[in-house]
UniProtKB/TrEMBL annotation:
Gene3D superfamilies found in the cross-reference section: 1.10.287.130, Histidine kinase-like ATPase, C-terminal domain, PAS domain
Record InterPro entries: BphY/WalK/GraS-like, HATPase_C_sf, HATPase_dom, His_kinase_dom, HisK_dim/P_dom, HisK_dim/P_sf, PAS-like_dom_sf, PAS_4
Annotated source species: Deinococcus arenicola
Pfam families: HATPase_c, HisKA, PAS_4
Domain (Histidine kinase) ranges: 181-391
SMART domains recorded: HATPase_c, HisKA
Protein name: histidine kinase
GO MF, one annotated term: ATP binding
Renumbered residue ranges of the record's region Disordered: 388-419
Length: 419
């Protein structure tokens, strides 16, 4: 094993091998030694490179121009370290050239040699790190500026939305009031007109009026009834609100109640299968089923009417299918019938005002579901609609056991439906 070499053997070579520009300054500020990097840097910047013996403090104190402030700060740091006021002094400063930016960090420490104190002054090139830091700072500033701009734009947009929502709420309230007042004001003259037409028909039909006059009175009565039903339908459509109170509703039981109220023909049949509990507004559910079952009763074929309500869970919704064996619908009209005032059968005893299915769509969408129509398998019509399952606290396991009942009801149709 080779004997250990004394550190002094490598001191000079290691001193010159350092990349930092290093000078050793005595207590008076005179440079007593420099390394090779210091000499090379001095020569590259117009100096002789032989800085030993120069008073570094005097040079720094007398510096002028853009670098003068940093030079004087370094001189003050050297004095503070030599006086023992601080152990280490550091300063990052720019030192640009015509060819590009440069950045350095000056570090000053004190050491003792042969009973005297000296300052070791090192200048290290940190250009790459500083440029990276400046780039990050510029990016951060740009991002902060963009965030401020986006925030200001978002606040302006939110302000506009709040204003528009306020205006929309006010207009909706005004519209609701208008619809209510208009429906009341429209129905009053219609009731009067219908009453006088009934008086004329009962007092003079077959007596002082001929057959043509009787026919005219019949037309007047019929159109008054249609107009009154139209006003009620428009009012029903306008008053459907998604803020309506909701609760757990057994749609199967509601369907049976509506079917009973409609009193279908003697041989009409209703079957209900699958989970039926939904989270909905009960009056709107009765209106929805009333319109759909009413259509099934009105547009049945020659065979006895058979209606089936099936259901299956689909995530947070229940998918219902109301299928009948009626006259059916052509595929090209399956979407059209959900529009306002859309009739496929004209103004006939079976034709409605064209609002019933629009009401159904409004109800389904207000509950977060949807509704559509398809041709049924084996004929007839299949109306699909989805509604939220159960309630907010008991949506899991809310489906009831599968049931299948057949109900036969008698009588003629009543006015719970319109289409």
């Amino acid at each position: 094993m080779l004997p250990a070499s004394p550190p002094e053997r490598f001191a000079v070579a290691a001193f010159d091998a350092l990349l930092a520009h290093i000078a050793i300054v005595d207590a008076d500020g005179v440079i007593v030694a420099v390394n090779r990097a210091w000499t090379a840097f001095a020569r590259s910047n117009g100096g002789t490179g032989n800085d030993v013996g120069l008073n570094y403090l005097g040079i720094c104190d007398g510096a002028q121009g853009a670098d003068g402030c940093d030079a004087r700060a370094i001189a003050a740091g050297i004095r503070a370290v030599m006086a023992g006021e601080q152990r280490l002094y550091e300063l990052e400063y720019p030192c640009h050239t015509p060819t590009g930016p440069r950045y350095y960090v000056a570090r000053v420490t004190r050491f003792e040699q042969d009973g005297a104190h000296y300052a070791l002054v090192a200048h290290e090139n940190i250009t790459r790190r500083k440029l990276a830091e400046l780039e990050v700072m510029a990016l951060n500033a740009m991002l902060e500026r963009r965030v401020e701009e986006r925030t200001a734009a978002l606040e302006a947009t939110q302000h506009d939305l709040q204003r528009l929502n306020t205006e929309l709420s006010a207009r909706n309230q005004e519209l609701s009031q208008f619809v209510y007042v208009a429906s009341h004001d429209l129905q009053e003259p219609l009731r009067t007109l219908g009453a006088y037409a009934d008086i004329l028909r009962h007092r003079y039909q077959g007596k002082q009026l001929d057959e043509r006059a009787d026919t005219y009175l019949g037309h007047i009565t019929e159109q008054v009834a249609r107009a009154r039903q139209l006003v009620r339908d428009v009012l029903a459509l306008a008053t459907i609100s998604e803020e309506a109170p909701r609760e757990a509703v057994d749609l199967g039981e509601t369907c049976r109640e509506v079917w009973t109220a409609l009193k279908g023909s003697e041989d009409a049949q209703l079957m209900i299968c699958g989970p039926q509990t939904v989270w909905a507004n009960p009056p709107q559910m009765r209106q929805l089923l009333g319109n759909l079952l009413g259509n099934a009763l009105k547009f049945h074929g020659d065979t006895p009417l058979h209606v089936e309500l099936k259901a299956r869970e689909d995530g947070d919704l229940i998918h219902f299918v109301l299928h009948d064996n009626g006259i059916g619908i052509a595929p090209e009209y399956a979407e059209k019938v959900f529009g306002m005032f859309q009739r496929l059968h004209g103004r006939t005893p079976t034709g409605g005002n064209g609002i019933g299915l629009a009401v159904c769509r409004r109800i389904a969408e207000r509950h977060g579901g949807r509704i559509w129509m398809e041709a049924g398998e084996g004929g007839g019509t299949a109306v699909h609609f989805t509604l939220p399952v159960g309630g907010p606290d008991d949506r899991e396991g809310q489906a009831t056991e599968v049931e299948k009942t057949e109900v036969e009801k008698t009588g003629s149709e009543r006015g719970l439906s319109s289409s």
